[in-house]
Amino acid sequence: MWPPAQARGKAGQRRDLQLYDNAMSKASSYLPQGFHSLNVHLTVKDASEYIEFLKRAFDAIELTRSPSPDGRLLNASVRIGDSVLMLNDVFPEFGGEPYSSGRAVRLTLYLPDADAAWAKAIAAGCKVAMAIQDQFWGDRYGEVEDPFGFVWALATHLEDLTGVEIEERRKKMFGGGRAANG
User: Residue 143's pLDDT is what?
Assistant: First the structure.
């Protein structure tokens, strides 16, 4: 029977878990420090290599790494800017699959200098998905696809525009037609 008898308390309770639970401090917040309400968690083929790529391309800082016995990463996290990105290796034995949706998902990264970040990402091995340029909504914005298939939108917010100003610029750029949702 698991756990062994020496680890069981009254009525078969696990004493080791009781001790662990009693020793754990309670969280001061529902949100772990450094996280935002919505966070990205990616399943990546060769997560260790992806972490190294993120360091080169986006100045990621590795926060955690939990390898499985065979060396694949069960969970890891890096900080990029003020946000935490979580990732893990593919575990097909648990139903995991590598990412393959292409441009259906974009990881948008706002930076003080999108052009410098763009040059660094290209030098690290990213391919241009959408050229960087000033956009009608007030951002300098472009998209790159990283060597692992993820699309990153790199942006710097340049102007605080009203909805009316954005709509006027959109019409000018696209010939004055109606918005797709309107």
Answer: 97
Query: What are 155's strand-pairing partners?
Result: 110, 141
Domains of the chain: 33-90 (3.30.720.120), 99-182 (3.10.180.10)
pLDDT at residue 169 tops 50: yes
Rounded to whole angstroms, how far apart are CA atoms 29 and 111?
Answer: 28
Q: What pLDDT, in 10s, does the model give residues 32-78?
A: 888 888 889 999 999 999 999 999 999 999 999 999 999 999 999 99
What angle separates helix 114-123 from helix 47-58, to the nearest 10 degrees? 140
Report d(CA 115, CA 36) in Å as an integer. Answer: 26
3-state secondary structure string, the chain?
CCCCHHHECHHHCEHHHHHHHHHCCCCCCCCCCCCCCCCEEEEECCHHHHHHHHHHHHCCEEEEEEECCCCCEEEEEEEECCEEEEEEECCHHHCCCCCCCHHHCEEEEECCCHHHHHHHHHHCCCEEEEEEEECCCCEEEEEEECCCCCEEEEEEECCCCCHHHHHHHHHHHCCCCCCCCC
pLDDT digits 0-9 by tens, 9-18 = 455 554 444 5
Q: Which amino acid is at 140?
A: R
- What percentage of the chain has pLDDT greater than the value 70? 82
